[in-house]
Specification:
Number of domains: 3
Protein name: Arginine--tRNA ligase
Catalytic activity: tRNA(Arg) + L-arginine + ATP = L-arginyl-tRNA(Arg) + AMP + diphosphate
CATH superfamily of the largest domain: HUPs
Strand content: 5-15%
Keywords: Aminoacyl-tRNA synthetase, ATP-binding, Cytoplasm, Ligase, Nucleotide-binding, Protein biosynthesis
GO cellular component, one term: cytoplasm
InterPro entries: Arg-tRNA-ligase, Arg-tRNA-synth_N, Arg-tRNA-synth_N_sf, ArgRS_core, DALR_anticod-bd, Rossmann-like_a/b/a_fold, tRNAsynth_Ia_anticodon-bd
Largest sheet: 4 strands, parallel
CATH topology of the largest domain: Rossmann fold
Bound molecules: arginine
Structural class: alpha/beta
Distance between the termini: 36 Å
Length: 562
């Protein structure tokens, strides 16, 4: 397989008579920003120091020794050696590969035989799906897709917040003031207002608190009425969450939430006490952690109740045993970073080295007009409304641009949702993001619709063309070469995005491809019937492959017409 960097590295290594290792050479090689400085460049400063010669002299000397079939020329430019590959020959190899591999282009084997578990989305039953959950969902799904591309086996887990004392309150409130039909109609909104009503009424009537405690105990003891109410609340909430997942096109392998671990915590507590790690503190049982900046991890409250952390400990052991993960990721807001450090540290303290393979993947907040954005306006859940609004806006934009388009509704959904996904993912994960539907939905600039539209434009060229694409003759012009080089980077970008757990690496790269293609579209008459037309169509086809696959990896849909 063609590998520019390896070819250049090998050439340099032999010209340098092995005075520098291939590893060191490869690490020094740069991709010049300006195409006039070649396809790859090697700076001679490090070498100059070792050889006590001027870098410019060394550059001239080495450049003259570089000779390989795919290298057109190597030239010294000041302290740099710039190398140019033969556009037609190298381009042909790259195009052939992309067209032959098609959808498979970019797939890697670095994860072969390994498993990654991703814990993401994980909203709380009977509570609104927050903007934080939206970010977790979008980022987690993209990371899962990237892991798939890298060849890992992936397991996507929705660790639902489906247990806790709030269910005692909810059962009490429902039995007093609830209405079955209303819950069915609008589960989360209704359950949330029952919960709020409980808190209002408890001010007047503190005895309600005892009742709630009673019902939570009953629930824990397996009381049938309590259990069936709990199950029903869970089911109705889940139905509502699933509507959101459907809109986003996201699926999970498991919905094992906190409740699933009810009967799995005792074993952990036994492990801890067998190693004498449980310490009493104000009546509660805690584990002291070796990390000086971490507070002790609370395992059992004074009334015997277990906690969020106890469940996460049980979940980690369960996942290790069931999936034999090589990596376990928790895509959860940064406000929980202490919690995850504690959980990891407890497992490590117990002596399990695999704790090192658990990673919290945090992210920043959604902001609106400089303030943290929340989906709860008064008592209404807004996320679904936000998604619907994006689709509506997309529909208006599409109608303005292309009134005769068929399937407008479907395409508007792909564009509206894609806009939100892309807007999130193009930003570095840790940054806070300004949430502006108008900005994310424009067809210009660095947006999802811009990518989708560029891709659709490429598809439409392929539909219009009478010829079929062919990579038989390489393109030798520099406009084509700029894009070919970019497409060549796709597998590397997938790998980098996954290694850094940063979908933004891929998102930014796709913008580069789209911009390069639009530039090409403006400079070159793609459908002109000359000898290169089939080659150019091959290039267009390759662009659709990379853009489509790349967008799908981010979780977006890719309309072929817009
Ligand atoms: N339900 C939690 C919340 O909304 C997130 C759970 C994250 N996953 C985990 N294993 N703790 O804050």
């Amino acid at each position: 397989m063609l590998n520019f960097k390896e070819i250049f590295t090998a050439q340099l290594a032999s010209a340098l008579d092995r005075q520098m290792s291939e590893e060191v050479i490869a690490a020094l090689i740069e991709i010049p920003k300006n195409p006039e400085h070649g396809d790859l460049a090697f700076p001679c400063f490090t070498l100059a120091k070792a050889l006590r010669k001027s870098p410019a002299v060394i550059a001239v000397d080495i450049a003259s020794q570089i000779r390989a079939p795919l290298i057109e020329k190597a030239e010294a430019s000041g302290p740099y050696i710039n190398v140019f590959f033969s556009k037609a020959a190298a381009g042909k190899i790259i195009m052939e590969r992309i067209l032959k591999e098609g959808k498979e282009y970019g797939k890697l084997t670095i994860g072969a035989g390994k498993t990654v578990v991703l814990d993401f989305s994980s909203p709380n039953i009977a509570k609104p799906f927050s903007m934080g959950h939206l970010r977790s969902t979008v980022i987690g799904n993209a990371l899962g897709n990237l892991a798939d591309k890298c060849g890992y086996q992936t397991v996507r887990i929705n660790h639902l917040g489906d247990w806790g004392t709030q269910f005692g309150k909810l059962i009490t409130a429902y039995k007093k003031w609830g209405n079955q039909d209303r819950v069915k109609e609008n589960p989360i909104q209704e359950l949330l207002s029952l919960y709020i009503q409980f808190h209002d009424e408890v001010e007047e009537n503190p005895a309600l608190e005892n009742e709630a405690r009673y019902w939570f105990k009953e629930l824990e003891n397996g009381n049938e009425e309590a259990a069936s109410l709990w199950e029903w609340f869970r089911e109705e909430s889940l139905k509502e969450f699933e509507r959101i997942y459907d809109m986003l096109g996201i699926k999970f392998d498991s919905y094992n939430g906190e409740a699933f671990y009810n009967n799995k915590m005792e074993a952990i507590i036994e492990k801890l006490s067998a190693k004498n790690l449980l310490v009493m503190s104000d009546g509660a049982e805690v584990v002291q952690l070796p990390d000086l900046d971490l507070p002790p991890c609370l395992i059992k409250k004074s009334d015997g109740a277990t906690l969020y952390a106890t469940r996460d400990l049980a979940a980690a052991f369960y996942r290790k045993k069931k999936y034999h993960f090589d990596q376990s990721l928790y895509i959860v807001g940064q406000e929980q970073s202490i919690h995850f450090r504690q959980v990891k540290s407890v497992i490590k303290t117990l002596g399990y080295e695999w704790a090192d393979h658990m990673a919290h993947v945090p992210f920043g907040l959604y902001m609106k007009d400089g303030k943290k954005m929340s989906t709860r306006k008064g008592r209404v859940i807004l996320l679904e409304e936000v998604l619907n609004e994006a689709v509506l806006l997309a529909k208006q934009n599409i109608e303005d641009k292309n009134p005769h388009l068929e399937n407008k509704k479907d395409i508007a959904e792909a564009v509206g949702i894609g806009a939100i996904l892309f807007h999130d993912l193009k930003n570095d994960r840790m940054n806070n993001i300004e949430f502006s539907l108008e900005d994310m939905l424009t067809f210009e600039g660095e947006t999802g619709p811009y990518l989708q539209y560029t891709n659709a434009r490429a598809y439409s060229l392929l539909r219009k063309a009478e010829d079929g694409p062919s990579s038989e003759n390489g393109l030798s012009d520099s406009h084509s070469w700029e894009i070919i080089k970019l497409l060549y980077q796709y597998p590397d970008k997938l790998e980098q995005a996954y290694q850094h757990l940063s979908p933004s690496v891929l998102a930014k790269y796709l913008i580069d491809v789209a911009q390069a293609f639009n530039k090409y579209y403006g400079q070159v008459r793609i459908l002109e019937k000359d000898t290169d037309i089939k080659g150019r169509l091959a290039l267009v086809k390759a662009v659709t492959i990379v853009l489509s696959e790349g967008m799908q990896t981010l979780g977006m849909r890719v309309p072929e017409q817009m």
